[in-house]
């Protein structure tokens, strides 16, 4: 059986995708919010996220007991914001997770350990790497939920799990492609959220799409540099869709929470206001703090990422720091 942990927009979209195939059976869904559980069970709609998306309520089992959902399932899709994942997993017996497959759709880092989600599941909880898969975009939930066509990357050290996940998620509008670069794809998904904030920062009064294009060009080099250090590969093609494609859509799309955060700051909004106005978590805000820890520890040169951290976590003049970041682009 299949389970989904999380009730945000991406989790809701994944539930919809999973329901496209009758072979997937009943989808077991861990939902924390009581109003969402009631609405999904009675009407097949998530009232908080993507409320216009109709789900098949007769093929859903909804519970607020995360242990129950994991106990019922063989394959568990993890779609909880990274900042809250450890707290949720602390409520689950680690013995009950052994032998089950965990497919992570989380594009962030665990704040307390500075790990990717697959690293956290493997090293902290003890789940075998062959029981973990990673899925990544470009897959904005708002488009996937409406059946707009796109591609999805699936990566695992276990090819059998990759192929099964590919088959489980494939439908008319979603084409999963299997990759071997587990660490690179997961890190690329983390980095693109951080760099999308920079994409927004170039959309201030003196910027625009032209400047954002220059920023993305520089960002891609910085991303490739980091990935080669953290996970060396001669076969990685940085221009493939899980890397450049996901970066592009997150830097430009109106659906991008991270770009929206950066744009608000560039246009003079206080950080607290920019964050409070967002209905969902901007993963890049949390991830850049852990990234700063890693690049300091390993002495990795990432000036754009450092500028994003400075703007978000140090009391600096935002415009001055943006100007400094732009001058150092090329």
Sum this structure up briefly.
The protein has 330 residues and is an alpha/beta fold. It has helices spanning 9-18, 34-43, 66-72, 82-89, 94-97, 117-125, 141-144, 159-169, 182-201, 209-230, 241-252, 257-266, 271-276, 283-298, 303-313, 318-327, and strands spanning 2-5, 27-30, 60-63, 75-78, 101-104, 109-110, 115-116, 132-136, 150-156, 174-179.
Detailed description of the structure:
The protein has an 8-stranded mixed sheet, with helices on both faces. Helix 9 packs parallel to helix 12, helix 14 (283-298) crosses helix 15 (303-313) and helix 15 packs antiparallel against helix 16. It has 330 residues and is α/β, with parallel strands linked by helices. It is globular and about 55 Å long. It has helices spanning 9-18, 34-43, 66-72, 82-89, 94-97, 117-125, 141-144, 159-169, 182-201, 209-230, 241-252, 257-266, 271-276, 283-298, 303-313, 318-327; strands spanning 2-5, 27-30, 60-63, 75-78, 101-104, 109-110, 115-116, 132-136, 150-156, 174-179.
């Amino acid at each position: 059986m299949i389970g989904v942990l999380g009730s945000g927009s991406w989790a809701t979209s994944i539930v919809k995708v999973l329901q496209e195939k009758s072979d997937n059976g009943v989808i077991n869904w861990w939902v924390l919010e009581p109003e969402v559980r009631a609405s999904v069970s009675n009407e097949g709609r998530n009232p908080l996220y993507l409320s216009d998306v109709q789900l098949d309520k007769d093929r859903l089992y909804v519970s607020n007991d995360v242990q129950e959902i994991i106990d019922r399932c063989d394959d568990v899709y993890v779609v909880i914001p990274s900042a809250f994942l450890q707290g949720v997993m602390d409520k689950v017996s680690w013995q009950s997770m052994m032998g089950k497959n965990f497919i992570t759709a989380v594009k962030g880092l665990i704040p307390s350990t500075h790990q990717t989600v697959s690293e956290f599941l493997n090293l902290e909880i003890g789940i075998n790497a062959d029981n973990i898969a990673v899925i990544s975009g470009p897959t904005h939930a708002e488009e996937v939920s409406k059946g707009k066509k796109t591609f999805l990357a699936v990566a695992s050290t276990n090819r059998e799990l990759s192929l099964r996940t590919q088959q489980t998620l494939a439908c008319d509008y979603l084409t999963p492609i299997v990759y071997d670069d587990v660490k690179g794809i997961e890190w690329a998904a983390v980095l693109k959220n951080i760099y999308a904030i920079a994409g927004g920062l170039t959309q201030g009064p003196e910027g625009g799409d032209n400047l954002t294009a220059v920023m993305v060009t520089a960002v891609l080099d910085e991303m490739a540099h980091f990935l080669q250090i953290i996970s060396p590969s001669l076969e990685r093609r940085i221009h493939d869709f899980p890397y450049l494609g996901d970066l592009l859509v997150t830097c430009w799309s109106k659906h991008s929470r991270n770009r929206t955060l950066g744009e608000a700051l560039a246009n003079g909004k206080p950080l607290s206001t920019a964050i409070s106005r967002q209905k969902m978590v901007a993963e890049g805000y949390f991830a850049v703090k852990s990234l700063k820890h890693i690049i300091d520890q390993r002495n990795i040169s990432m000036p754009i990422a450092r500028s994003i951290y400075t703007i978000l976590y140090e009391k600096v003049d935002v415009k001055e720091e943006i100007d400094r970041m732009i001058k150092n682009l090329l």
